[in-house]
Amino acid sequence: MPAPADHEFGFELRVCAWAERRWPPDSEEPMSVVVARQLGTERRRWDTVVIETDPEALRRRAVFGSDRLDEDLLHVVRNAPPSWTFYRDALPHPGYPWRYVREAIHRANDRGAVETRKRANRIEIRRIAPYPDWIERVIAIENKPDLDASAARALRDQMERDVAVSLADEVWVATRRTGDRVEPALLEDLPIEVGILALDDGSAEVLWHPHSLATDRPGTVVEERASTSEYGERAARFRYVDPTTKRTKRLAIAERAYERGWRSYVETMRPDCRQFDLERDQNGYVPVCRAKRAVQSAVECRGSCSEFEPEPPAWRQRGWPIDGGPGTAIQRILADRRARQR
């Protein structure tokens, strides 16, 4: 069976597992991080997201539960007062109708993130605890195990846009180490602000250190680049993103990372298939398909697969061998590891 690194999805999981244990690079003491995969905004999704955290603040974040707080809930939780207050007096105007705020207040109350009561037909709110400032930095990593010239050309535009909007504090490209005297990634035409990381069998080498991006300043979203064709010239189109919007987006991304982690891939795959298994290497577990003798991805591992073979009913019933079949055990193992790391 091929090694996990031979598959782009397997390489992505290796990067996540390495970052969880070894981040930051070139440091003897790993810091407290939350790692997730396939997160970002409506316009851009990163392969790996590393949230550098304040450990004490991260522990205080747990008071609000393991589920994420979306932007509407964050508006309520972050501004909830320490004493009972009419919600319109306590919360800044959200920029949209108050009825949506009331819905968010009820959702927050249902999950125990705030307290509510009704006085004189008015909804009053009170916080259960201050929402902590648990995020120190947001790191975005694009994974390309084989960073050849064509892959670098395709990446350049994405990396330039990431640098321009500066939503993340650092942007990296992770690739597989080749062992050449000069790694090919260093010869490719990538923005100088982007760091390059080469991984190999549980270790990583920084080939190029990234620049720290100005997340506290307005960012630029490039909507269309200038171009010239036989029909004439087309001007570039862009817009600015203010720091407050960026701060809200960063927090929403961090909350999603807190909820999902990087082991959530099993939720979109079919661990209840008899061919599904986990294989462990130096950086943790990766999913493998015994029928195809390969590391599969969430796109490949689904009920429509020609090799899909459901577990026998006896495995899924009567607690065989302990609380369900192998698929249930796999889900439990990954969920426990995700919860323990968080």
Major beta-sheet overview: 6 strands, mixed
User: Order of helices and strands, N to C?
Assistant: HEEHHEHHEEEHEEEEEEEHEEHH
Mean pLDDT: 87
* Spatial extent as radius of gyration: 23 Å
**Strand residue content:** 25-35%
Structural class: alpha+beta
State the low-pLDDT regions, or none. 1-6
Number of domains: 3
Number of helices: 9
Order of strands across the biggest sheet?
Answer: 1-2-6-7-8-9
Number of strands: 15
Distance between the termini: 31 Å
Classify the helix fraction into a percent range.
Answer: 25-40%
Globular, elongated, flat, extended or rod-shaped: what is the shape?
A: globular
InterPro entries: DUF5787 (IPR043901)
Pfam families: DUF5787
Describe the structure.
It is a single chain. The protein folds into three domains: 180 residues, no CATH class; 64 residues; 78 residues, no CATH class. By secondary structure, it is α+β, with helices and mostly antiparallel strands. A six-stranded mixed beta sheet has the order 1-2-6-7-8-9, sandwiched between helices. Helix 3 packs across helix 5. Strand 14 and strand 15 form a beta hairpin.
